[in-house]
Amino acid sequence: MATLRFRAKIGINGINPYVPVSAARAKRLKPDWRKPMPVRVRVDGKPTTPWCINLMPAGDGAFYLYLHETVRRASGTAVGDTVAVELAFDENYRAGPADLPDWFARALARNTAARRGFAALIPSRQKEIVRYLANLKSAEAQQRNLAKTLHMLGGGSGRFMARDWNGKSETPRRRPK
Questions:
Q1: In whole angstroms, what is the distance from residue 47 CA to residue 72 CA?
Q2: Coil, helix or strand for 113?
Q3: Is 95 domain-assigned?
C-alpha cells in the first residue's frame, strides 16, 4: 500500500496533541473505514522506523492522528508546528490485546497483588504496559522494569511510564515544564 504524505499543523485536543486527517485522505488509505484505523506514521521523517498507532475516527469520515510522545520527541515537534506527515495503512496490525512477554506472565502468576492490579487496569493501559515491556531488549532492562512494574501494580507509589501511581492505581498528571 502506498504512503500518504501531507503537511498539517499539530493541534491539541484536551491534553492530546494530534494532526487532523481529512475524510478524503483517510479514504485514500483505506476506503469506507469507520473504526480506529491501524497505521504506521512518521513526522518530519522521524522516527526512522515508522510508529504503529491507530487513527481515531472523528465521526464524519475524518480521523485524528494522536501523536505519541515517542514520535514528537524523535521529530522534535510540538503543538502549533506545521509538520510533514507520512501515513501508511498497517496491513500487519493484529487487533486485540498484545501478548504478554513470558517473563512478565511468569512474574504476574507469582505475584497476586500485581496480578490483581494489572487486571484492574483499563485494557488500553494494560496494552500500553505490555507493549512497553515487550520492547525491552536487554535482560537487565527487563529485570529493572519488571521490578518497578510489579511494585506499581502491586499497590506501590511512585512515577512509572510518565504517570504518578498513588498506591492503588495510576493517576495521570501533567508534569511542570
A1: 9
A2: helix
A3: no
Average pLDDT of every residue of the chain: 87
Percent of the chain at pLDDT exceeding 70: 90
Strand partners, 153: none
How many CB atoms lie under 10 A from the CB of residue 152?
Answer: 25
**Residues near 99 by beta carbon (within 8 Å), at least 6 away in sequence:** 130, 134
Give the other-Cβ count within 10 Å of 82's Cβ: 11
19: CATH: 2.40.30.100
Which residue, among 68, 92, 72, 94, has the nearest Cα to 81 in the 3D structure? 72
Distance CA 61, CA 55 (A): 11
**pTM confidence score:** 0.56
- In this structure, the answer to whether residues 14 and 53 fall within a common structural domain is yes
Q: Are residues 13 and 82 in the same domain?
A: yes
Q: What is the total count of domains within the chain?
A: 2
Range of the domain at 148: 102-171
